[in-house]
Amino acid sequence: MTLDQLNPPTRLLMGPGPINADPRVARATASALTGQFDPWMTATMNETMGLYRSVFSTANEQTLLVDGTSRAAIEAALVSLLSPGQKVLVAVMGRFGLLLEEIAERAGAQVITIERPWGTVFTLDEIEEGLRTHRPALFATVQGDTATTMNQPLEGLGQLCHRYGALCYVDATASVAGNALLVDEWELDVVSAGLQKCLAGPSGSAPITISERAREVIYSRRHVEAGISEGADGPGERIRSNYLDLAMLMDYWGPERLNHHTESGPMLYAARECARIIADEGIAGTVARHRLHGAAMAAGLEGLGLELFGDQTHRMNNVIGVKIPDDVDGDRLRAALLEDFAVEIGTSFGPLAGVVWRVGVMGYNARRDAVLATLAALEAELRRFGHPTPASGGVEAAMNHYQEQES
């Protein structure tokens, strides 16, 4: 059987991720490959580390990439920070808090959770009560949980964790570059991300930044593979993953260049270009762009007569949850939107499955034409499915928002 060349359909990806990669990022992935220890390659790795320090607003020396999707960095963080039997306090406000809980359990940690209803966030007082009561070695949370579209406030969180002797880990996969994230100012110890959301790249590389406090904990469990180096192991228990061992990854990305995996050239190039584009715009400008276009989308969805989901004072800039009208089959309308207009939006999980749509405004798609095209297509499908909606209400409301911001 002869197979044709790949020719995927062109879609406008306006769901919770992945999104359309910036064309400059896509072009970068086609660049020539070099050996993993070629001086050009290692220099590019160093450049990428510097670029992501700016993205994370940190001076952390240990700022690097984990080869794999954003989940690989989450697991690398938890398996490297937590020894079996150690306490971790996980703040759960949606599906991805539940993921942190599961990964920590698989790492053998003693997992304790505090929970909020989906569509709400934690106060610092609620988190402090959990820290005071349980005295964990690590506190873990998600900044932006795309399942609920909520953005957990982080200011003061790291300082609070350190007051109770805990390290602070944050999964910022869906929030970094679309929402304020000040790693050093907020004293966050480990923060991980992924390219496929506000960073405007493909899934497959996961930036992570590690404070000196966290590096010391991870290095206490350092183990060097046989045949690589005669370096001494740390006194702590060996990290229970080879591929996701952050101590070995730090050795690989550091000046020693101890061999670990083979860094993916195309994904390194993609990650570098994502961060380079943000450096050109400025991280504050990138966040402001997401805030502008996300708010325009939210205004447009309300202009269509739809009800937004969750606590809007704590909504992410880049993902908007909207309640599916009772008279509409949400999955059928999403399928029609994809077939008729090549526009993709998402549904949600668990208690929100079939209850809300999630509309993303992220990365390369955080722009006016993408917002307006999505609203126009959604209005057409709502009408075709028999749901009454104001004529041009979504586009007009979004345009009014843009005009207000420009005046």
TrEMBL record:
Residues 41-342 form the Aminotransferase class V domain. The modification N6-(pyridoxal phosphate)lysine is found at residue 197. Its cofactor is pyridoxal 5'-phosphate. It comes from the Bacteria. Substrate binds at residue 358. The keyword Transferase applies. Coiled coil: none annotated. Keywords: Aminotransferase, Pyridoxal phosphate, Transferase. It is an enzyme of class 2 (transferase). Gene3D superfamilies: Aspartate Aminotransferase, domain 1 (3.90.1150.10), Type I PLP-dependent aspartate aminotransferase-like (Major domain) (3.40.640.10). GO terms for biological process: glycine biosynthetic process, by transamination of glyoxylate. One of its GO terms (molecular function) is alanine-glyoxylate transaminase activity. Its EC number is 2.-.-.-. Belongs to the class-V pyridoxal-phosphate-dependent aminotransferase family. PANTHER family: ALANINE--GLYOXYLATE AMINOTRANSFERASE, AMINOTRANSFERASE CLASS V. This is Purine catabolism protein PucG. It comes from Acidipropionibacterium virtanenii. The lineage of its organism: Bacteria, Bacillati, Actinomycetota, Actinomycetes, Propionibacteriales.
